[in-house]
Amino acid sequence: MAQLRFQSTGEEVELEDGSPIATACEEAGMPFACTEGVCGTCIFETEDQENLSPPTQAELDFLGEHGVRRERMACQCKIKKGLVRISF
Ligand code: FES
Asked: Is residue 77 lining ligand 1, measured as CB closer than 6 Å?
């Protein structure tokens, strides 16, 4: 099982390895709009990139090569394994 930790509240959620994180993030209070990687509403910061799926083309287009090192879009990410700490 993989785990999300929301840094603002300390809340932790377990997910199957390989799961999309959007629903868990929405339940933790993160705002969403387009859900397609276009609007940027769901951008969060993390230092645990290695445990997330690689950036999608939509994330690269919006955030840039540099931006995706710290910021990701919750509507585009899957968690691969382990712990991902999320700040939004
Ligand atoms: S909800 Fe629009 S980019 Fe994720």
From this structure: no
Mean pLDDT of 24-41: 97
How many Cβ atoms sit within 10 Å of the Cβ of residue 65?
8
Q: What is the pLDDT of residues 35-75, one digit of tens each?
A: 999 999 999 999 999 999 999 999 999 999 999 999 999 99
DSSP 8-state class, residue 81: S
Measured in angstroms, how far is the CA atom of residue 61 from the centroid of ligand 1?
13
Q: Is the CB of 88 under 6 A from ligand 1?
A: no
Domains annotated for the chain, with CATH where assigned, are 2-86 (3.10.20.30)
Please indicate, yes or no, whether the overall pTM of this predicted structure exceeds 0.90.
yes
Strands 71-73 and 43-45: antiparallel
